[in-house]
Amino acid sequence: MVDILDAFLQGLIQLFTWKAFVLQLAGIAIGFLVGILPGLGGPVTLALMLPFIFTMSPVEAFSFLLGMAAVTATTGNITSILFGVPGEPITASMVVDGHPMAKKGEAGRALGAALMSSFVGAIFGALCLAISIPLVRPLVLSVGSPQYFMFAILGVAFLASLTGGSVIKGLVAACLGFLFALVGLDPISGTERYTFDTLYLWDGIRLVPATLGLFAIPEIIDMAVARTSIATSKVGKIGGVLQGVKDTFRHWALVMRCSALGAYVGILPGMGGGTSQWVAYAHAVQGSRDKDRFGKGAVEGVLAPGAGTHSTLGGDMVPTVAFGVPGGVTTAILLGAFLIQGLVPGPPMLVPEAKGGHLSLTFSFVWIIVVSNIIITAICFLFLGQIARITEVRSSLVIPFILLLIYLGAFAENNAFGDVVVMLVFGALGWVMVQADWPRPPLILGLVLGSLAEQNLFLSIDNYGMDWLGFPSVLALFALTVLGTFYPLFQRWREKRNKPQYKQLAAVAELQAKEAVPVSIWLPIFSLFVVTLFAWALWQAWGWDFRPGLFPWVVGFLALPLALLQLNLDIAGAVKTIGQRLVKARDQEATRLTRETVKISTWILGYFVAIWLLGFSVAIVVMTFLYLKLAKERWLIALVLTFFAWISFYGLFVYLLHVPFPEGLLFAWFRQ
Amino acid sequence: MKPRIWLLPATIAALFLVAIPQAPADEFYKGKTISFVVGFSAGGGFDTYTRLIARHIGKHIPGNPTVVVENRTGAGSLVAANYIYNQAPRDGTVIGNWIGPLVLQQVLGNKAAKFDGRQFGWLGVPTPDSGVCALTEASGIKTMDDWFNSKRPIKIGGTAPGSTTDDVPKLVQAALGFPMKLVEGYQGTAKVRLAAESGEIDGGCWAWESIKPTWAKGLQSGEVRIVLQSTDKAHPDLKNVPLAIQYAKTDEARALLAIANGPYAQGARPYTVPPGVPQDRLQLLQKAFMESLRDPDLLQEAKKSQVDIDPVDGPTVAKLMAGLYDLDPAFKSKLTKLLIPGADKKN
Helix/strand/coil (H, E, C) string of B152-195? Predict the structure, then answer.
């Protein structure tokens, strides 16, 4: 016991040799930048930094790398909240409620809440790492393929039934996510599914461009149409930040539960922050009495993913350290660092140094996560007031930079031009979904977990035949899924029944008022599109074998009736709207909205065409300058900002990272 | 006298015309940049080897070019292979790194592979993948005799057809005929290890170079045993482990094992230049490749990262790949049935 305590303290002391500490600061600085920039993700940057650790001692190496990994999600949250553009794929959930808060002028409060809950989550995750390493073996080994499959279904079902007002829309959106996850070459049977004979689609739809499109493009359109700064009301005093911190403690139980959820998802290999953020978010919605506030700037919707995502890293480290099976993408790359340092993950990591192990190094991981988070949180709090002010900058100055960020972000993760097209397609889909009031989170989680669910379903069948369906753990998870999906419906029904008579009358009146709201005649058209998509997907899948075909069939047959039901509801609504002559005449405001929407959409597409014809380097200069000038900015501002955009692009992506940007089509023609 | 100004540009143009095509290989790389194009994302095994070589090869090429690494991912590195063959500049400034079994896939009729493996310039392979089968203690299989006599099929974890984890056990099983069931679909070898430890499967077959550092604990404690090697020579670490070839009884069995030991082992991680790179430049790159893999600085870094180096030279790899194009048609259709999923239905 004394050994362990000694190692625990040694772990902390080791961090404060000057070299280790300077390297940790360097790691934090890099992580800060990487987190803020969308597309430039934590894992890729970690991989690029691996060669630098050859000459470092283990503690120095992990101070550098883990320090970097620990902070990317923190600053990724800032981008998500302020601009509605996910700074990291694992901070996409922060957009859902964090960005609406920024729009309401509560950017400070949202950032404060995100930072504080992240901090708490990170510390929680680090503690999990400290105490659970000896216990982890049975925990991880008890989760086989059948349980993985059930976890994936459970997570998606929960999120689908909880976010957004309509359970039907949520479930259909989740099925859309599953459907998109099926795109690509089925690796086992070699069947091409929905690939349109293009090699690019063999790898399926990648998460980063899909997330960027789904969440960022509707935001840009919104911002341009509103023609104001991001915050439509005045940003409150810096006091907003403190408010956010207080919120963390006001909802202490929620933050703790989400931290625990995040750490557990992290401990499961293969599931990381991409999943835990949404699981935590769904949990926050589920636990709330007033579900309607979510998606419109509820602070719980910021606290939950903040805590959940950050505790995941500590959780992810557990199986990595304990038996060399990385918990997520980030830790998969950190595993490379273990090997470079000549460390063998496994029991020796848990034996004190005196007996030939590396226990104090393992404890130093805990401390690195803690110390890095203390530093980054302190830095962010210092500048939070100023950072929040960004939301007050007028949109014409912000939009060209956001456009630059999303195009770079979509391209640079995999250096594939197809990703840019995927981003645009998902941008259109995302915009329509917002207009038609469909929830986007279930779609993203479906995309994240779709292939995991499918693979583990077949692994279960291959390993256990049909027996796995009878495993007690599988049955328990199934019951939980059903309960979680239908409980919200039951809850609503019960609330209605239990209300006193006069309140019931009031509720009825409210409901009637709600139904009288005109339903756009465009809604059934989108539902029809969704129905057609599933019908087409089923029709395509008809000739496929059992292996590649099972999942498409199940998803299609599940989604088609639900989508038809939604179509029916939408048509009924539209008919009523027309029948009761509720169709609003097009007033001036509506005309202006349409015009502005068309205008910004043209810019977005024009930017794409410019990149295609001129290549990134030239297009960035041309489009940034044109946008600023046509928005009637002054020459000096336009020139300086354009130069700034170009130099940050060139310095970082071309000079430092050697991203192979494709040549513009025009230049390619001229050369031939 | 009228100055003949026009002569100046004409002379420069003439100089260019004469000078460029004749630049000898040893001056060609001066001030140039060589790009390594890896078919997998940053941080993986292929990327690790490439960045290791990229850090050192510059000093072994006359003119000391700058060397950069690009990750061009997609379709299990097929995107990179197609890019190198069809689009990359053919002047020796781009070097590709993708999986060797793709050449076999092309031979067996994969239409998406848009290249002829004989036309690439082959620089070499940093180390062969030494295929071995690792089984857990819980499987009850300690020796090959146990495996041959097993009453139940031994469950081997695979990732996807086309990879070593799946194709090597299929080839070895087809050659030797022991009871085996391949469970495909695990996401990477770490998941195969995990499933083996939890008892879901009995083990897996892939490169010893990867198993040694990642499954060290299991190997030390005896929870995991290496029972078979698919290579034709024993790995120095594994002198007492039998070779598959010892159990091969027919010519066909030996031919199947030669495939397992060819593109999946000797030629598993090749470095290539596009067709049409001038011969002298190709030879220069082949030489530089081998020299940098014997560079003490590189070897020291490799040792630290626990990355094995045992280079196979370019001409050897070229011969091995070209050999795949001369396979007997009957054997080829057997391989197709064995290795290409859904092949019997398509034909």
Answer: CCEEEEECCCCCHHHHHHHHHHHHHCCCEEEEECCCCHHHHHHH
* Chain B partners within 8 Å of A191 (Cβ): 342
| B contact test, residue of A45, A48, A318, A330 with most B CBs within 10 A | A48
Q: How close B102 gets to chain A, by Cα (Å)?
A: 14
SS3 content of chain B, % helix, strand, coil (to 5): 50, 15, 35
User: What does the pLDDT read at residue A559?
Assistant: 93
Rounded to a whole number of angstroms, the distance from the CA of A660 to the nearest CA of chain B is 7
Chain B residues with beta carbon closer than 8 angstroms to that of A348: 217
* C-alpha closest to that of A621 among A634, A602, A607, A603: A607
Highest mean pLDDT among A206-220, A412-426, A520-534, B266-280: B266-280
DSSP A661: P
* pLDDT tens per residue, range A391-407: 777 878 888 888 888 89
Chain B from 128 to 157: CB within 8 A of any A CB: 155
Q: Cα–Cα distance between A330 and A242 in angstroms, integer? A: 32
- Shortest alpha-carbon distance between residue B211 and chain A (Å): 11
| pLDDT value at residue A280 | 92
Q: Report the C-alpha gap between A473 and A471 in whole angstroms.
A: 5
Q: Can you give the pTM of this predicted structure?
A: 0.81
The 10 Å Cβ neighbour count of residue A331 is: 28
- Contact between B74 and A414 using a beta-carbon 8 Å cutoff: yes
Q: Which two tokens stand for residue A69?
A: 């990994």
Which residues in chain B are contacts of A411 at CB distance < 8 A?
Answer: none
- Cβ contacts of B213 on chain A, cutoff 8 Å: 339, 344
At residue B154, the pLDDT reads 95
What are the residues whose beta carbons fall under 8 Å from the beta carbon of A378, sequence distance 6 or more?
Answer: none
Residue B119 has a CB neighbour count (10 Å cut-off) of: 12
pLDDT at B21: 46
Say whether A190 and B198 touch across the interface (CB within 8 A): no
Higher pLDDT residue, A582 or A384?
A384
**Alpha-carbon span B162 to B182, nearest angstrom:** 13
pLDDT digits (tens, 9 = 90+) for A494-503: 766 666 555 5
Determine, for residues A344 and B213 on separate chains, whether the beta-carbon distance falls below 8 Å. yes
- Check: CB of residue A267 under 8 Å from CB of residue A440: no
Q: How many CA atoms lie within 13 A of A166 on its CB side?
A: 16
B150-180 pLDDT tens trace: 999 999 999 888 888 999 999 999 999 999 9
pLDDT band for position A509 (cuts 50, 70, 90): low
Answer yes or no: do B43 and A43 touch at CB < 8 A.
Answer: yes
Q: How close B339 comes to chain A (CA, Å)?
A: 11
Distance of CA A364 to the CA centre of its chain: 29
Q: Cβ of A141 and B68 within 8 Å? A: no
Residues A546-568 pLDDT 10s: 888 999 999 999 999 999 999 99
Q: To the nearest 10°, the Cα dihedral for A155, A89, B158, A339?
A: -120
**Are A415 and B160 inside 8 Å of each other by CB?**
no
- For residue B271, give the 3-state DSSP assignment: strand
Q: Do A188 and B161 touch (CB under 8 A)?
A: yes
Q: Which residue has the higher pLDDT, B346 or A360?
A: A360
What average pLDDT does this structure show over A194-208?
84
Picking from A50, A191, A199, the nearest residue to B342 by CB comes out as A191
pLDDT of residue A661: 83
Q: Are A333 and B201 an interchain contact pair (Cβ–Cβ within 8 Å)?
A: no
CA distance A248 to chain B (A): 36
With b for 16 or more beta-carbon neighbours within 10 A and e for fewer, the A268-299 pattern comes to: bbbbbbbbbbbbbbbbbbbbbeebebbbebbb
ipTM passes above 0.90: no
| Largest separation between any pair of C-alpha atoms in chain A | 83
